[in-house]
Amino acid sequence: MTAIVPLHTDADILIVDDNPANCDLLDALLEDAGYERRQIMTDPRLVLPRVAQQRPDLILLDVRMPHMTGFQVLQALNDAHGDDASAVIILTAQTDDDTRYQALALGVRDFLTKPFDQTEVLQRIRNTLELQRLMRERSERASLLETLVHERTQELERRSRQDPQTGLPNRIALLEALEQRLQARIDTGVFFMALDGVDDVARLHGFTTADLLAGALADRLRAVVSDSNAVLGVWNSTEWVVVCDSTIDDKTIGALADRLLHSFATPFDIDGMSLHLAVRMGVSASLPERHAEQLVRMAALALPKALGVWQGYNHDLENALQRRTHMRAALRRAADRRELYLVYQPKVDLIQQRIIGAEALMRWQSPEFGAVSPAEFIPLAESSGLIVRLGLWVFEEAVRQLATWREQGLVDAAFGVAINVAAEQLAQKDFAQVLIGILANYRLPAGLIELEVTESGLMQDMQLAMQQLNVLHQAGFPIAIDDFGTGYSSLAYLKTLPVSVLKIDRAFIREVHTSTQDQRLTGTVIDMARHFGFRTVAEGVELPEQLHRLQQMGCDVGQGYIFAPPLKEGALIKLLESDLDHLFSPDSAISAKI
Ligand code: C2E
Ligand code: MG
Ligand code: MG
After folding, report:
1. Which of 210, 444, 490, 527 could form a disulfide with 202 if both were Cys (CB 3.0 to 4.6 A apart)?
2. Dist. CA 89–CA 124, nearest whole Å
3. Which residue's CA is minimally distant from atom 13 of ligand 1?
4. What is the pTM of this model?
């Protein structure tokens, strides 16, 4: 049994034969079989224009014709339409091999031999149309697939150049935009914005809020750059970049910088909260020989230290960077070369009016750089991870020193030493165990070694820091929050940490005797700290007025130049023997006791 062949009676069929009788015969046959769309053509020269206008599904093509042979017509069709050409069945009386080979080489689907056998004609036409349909479907599916793949590739390509949170161009896209401008020799400015506060928002309110905040910031900055030919993009979550036309001398750079800064002036309303962001901005401009990455690096190098301001790149920054690089290398060798030592700043009990301990502070006497301020070398050590090793050296040295003093009877049994601990140290998994091990070697009670950590240090890796602090607290180390008031300053939140001492930052003490606002702030902190059971230490006490005020407020301990600057070991011991009475006037001492 032959399979049922679909008819495709709606197919568009073109009959091309110079013999009208043949044409009529085929046409009648097709009509009888139900084919509705037929056209007869006796002049082969008309085939191409017709096909160009409307491509038939099938062409029944005679070979021998005046003006053009069937093969010439075929060739012309192939040239014009290639793979997309209509299916062709050759009508021929000749059945010699050459004709067949030539026809097959030109891609004909089938042959019909004259005189026609009606059943065979219909069957071959149906077969050809069915095959044509299958091929068309397959090619449609292939091109659909091709379109989908193309769209998907474009989507991936787009995403690979987009910051997922804000939809802004990412680093790759920014660098490309920059490179294009530089290649086109367009004077270009780069604004490198270091955002301050994004990480805090993520830690305190979660990543969804941080993403919303980033979106709101993107909207504001977009509005600022929208009227210029500038590109706003995200270098990483806390560092954003604007690329714009201009040169560094151009006034527009300054104006744009100010407008960008101004975007941070008002808080963002997110989820009913009023969130603040601050920014520092470095600016660079293209010089003929610069590369894209170099320009960004220059802008990043120009980042000022202070929030809310911008700074343009200049060559001195390069020198400063070089100095830092050299200094970092020198610092790496400093401990081994015995260039580091500790100084001790006394801590004075404000009620007993006597020295009860000292904070150990690191000093570096470099043969190359001279006496380097901790304000310079500590951040350097922190950013390079070197602080982990140096911090350990400080701890061991301070503990050794205290043990020696005790052995020699130079300090009383309750005299303690405070040691600064950097964030990177708290992020070390074995940090607590290492300290406990060192302390055991010297047989000192842990209660004498106070560990000062900053709020930002705690925040860097909260979980790990908590773990370490809990272990240390259990082992008996008192934990102090250093520079309190400069960070998050949530006392309720600190209560969840194993903290027992708050060191109120110098910034609040500086005007505690003149500014009522600072007075109120410091007073509140001291009251609340007492309520929560924290001891308070005032940092940077310089003047008798400050001291008296702090005594009145009930602050427990003072530290500052009024008593002594950080001292070398010998000077500290000498100071322990002296009297501090002259610093505490009778009046304030009495009021502090009330
Ligand atoms: P800090 O821990 O808050 O130390 C107090 C700083 O205030 C010391 O600065 C001290 O010299 C200074 N100071 C004390 N009294 C007064 C005063 O009355 N007036 C003024 N204007 N300043 C006063 P120093 O020694 O320059 O240390 C600066 C910072 O460097 C320290 O701040 C601490 O954060 C860090 N640091 C110092 N040594 C170490 C260390 O061994 N490890 C770590 N991680 N950080 C250290
Ligand atoms: Mg400290
Ligand atoms: Mg401090």
Report:
1. 210
2. 9
3. 540
4. 0.64
